[in-house]
Design a protein that fits this description.
single chain; alpha+beta; 3-stranded antiparallel β-sheet; 10 helices; flat
């Protein structure tokens, strides 16, 4: 695992006085490859990955509500960029990077006349903050950084003209952590070792399957050999025929004395239960590290599907995690859209819907917001539509 230190000092120049390439940017981790390490952990731990995916999905919501009188808002919600991504798709990727890396990058594109606006998600693992702390450097492979292949963009609110004539900027989202200035820290940082434990217990179970659940132990073989090479050949032949997964059975070859005293000495496997408890504890700790909830990640379905518990935990998650993250993601977007397009974006709101149906589809939006204890306005045209319309996509993206 790469160290997570947020280095504030530049790498020293070489003995010949030449500066190194890393003088161009602030390293993300001691070796500048922390994002790659975090991504690898998420690919190896099932629970860890599921929580990240679910948090991003809940934070992105089910679409957007907005004032239908402004066609510009409707166009951006339906098509946020030239690649055809909806605003919901862009926000979901931003939320996923934020949950995984503690950092996310949103590229803003317009022209000198501010006649259009495009929003692009930039993979956080490809971004580094420049030394001036006012620009971000994008590169496809930071393990082999080449300045000629890198692209530099200003951080919002700065905007700079590019070769194609467009004005571009990047919004940098980062999770606050004391002692870290240039990059954020993922919220689950205290659970990295827990994720490794869950991965290793899964790997141990795979090794047992590969070994056909044979007992582990030591096989003592009596034989007469003329050289160490001959002894090594016999042991390897025995391993290939009897050992199953290599390393589950250790073969020991000794000189025969009287008779054949070859025997198998099994290793006690009474610790299987300890491995299971360790895996369950690691899973529980990972949920806590993410500040998330078990039923929202499908961890308790085996013990029964409790709609009441899921709805209860969803309400807690909505008021403690989801709404706060949505506000943190959307406030810069609304400010940026108002500044560039000159439109009122206060009506642009993410639509939240629980994983199980708790309200009738004929209920109006303001009635549902009232039932959830949220701010509501019965006179707001945006809140006059029915929940069935949102579910059908008429008021969503």
């Amino acid at each position: 695992m790469a160290a997570i230190a947020d280095r504030s000092e530049p790498l020293l120049a070489g003995s010949n006085g030449c500066t190194t390439e890393s003088d161009r940017y602030w390293r993300w981790g001691d070796d500048n490859m922390l994002p790659a390490a975090l991504a690898l952990v998420s690919r190896r731990s099932t629970t860890h990955r599921r929580i990240i995916n679910d948090k991003a999905d809940y934070i992105a919501g089910k679409g957007f509500m907005f004032d239908g009188k402004d066609p510009m808002l409707g166009h951006i919600v339906a098509c946020a960029n030239a690649e055809g991504d909806s605003l919901r798709a862009v926000v979901e990727r931003i939320a996923r990077d934020q949950a995984l890396f503690g950092n996310a990058f949103l590229e803003v594109v317009t022209d000198g006349g501010r006649t259009f606006l495009s929003l692009y998600h930039q993979d956080a693992s490809r971004c580094r903050i420049a030394r001036d702390s006012h620009h971000v450097i994008l590169h496809h492979d930071w393990a082999a950084f080449s300045p000629t292949e890198a692209r530099t963009l200003p951080l919002w609110p700065l905007m700079e003209q590019q070769q194609d004539g467009t004005l571009r900027s990047v919004i940098h989202y980062k999770s606050y952590e004391p002692m870290f200035e240039h990059y954020g820290v993922p919220p689950y940082i205290a659970g990295l070792n827990v994720a490794a434990i869950a991965y290793k217990t899964d790997k141990w179970n795979i090794a047992r399957i590969d070994n056909s659940f044979q007992l582990s132990g030591v096989m003592m073989l009596d034989s007469i050999v003329d050289s160490e090479e001959e002894a090594d050949r016999i042991v390897r032949a025995a391993e290939e025929k009897f050992a199953g997964s290599p390393g589950q059975v250790m073969f020991v070859l000794r000189d025969r004395t009287e008779g054949d005293n070859s025997r198998f000495i099994p290793i006690d496997t009474a610790s299987d239960g300890d491995w299971q408890s360790l895996h369950e504890q690691a899973t529980a700790d990972m949920v806590i590290a993410h500040s998330w909830f078990r039923s929202l990640s499908g961890l308790d379905y085996s013990s029964g599907f409790s709609t009441e518990r899921i709805l209860h935990e969803y309400e807690v998650a909505l008021n403690t995690v989801i709404l706060a993250e949505q506000q943190r993601l959307m406030d810069p977007i609304r400010t940026m859209m108002s500044d560039i397009l000159g439109v009122d974006c206060r009506s642009l709101q993410i639509v939240n819907r629980p994983p199980t149906r708790s309200k009738p589809m004929y209920m109006k939006v303001w009635e549902a917001r009232k039932a959830d204890g949220l701010d509501y306005d019965p006179e707001d045209p945006c809140q006059q539509c029915f929940l069935a319309q949102i579910a059908g996509g008429k008021a969503a993206e």
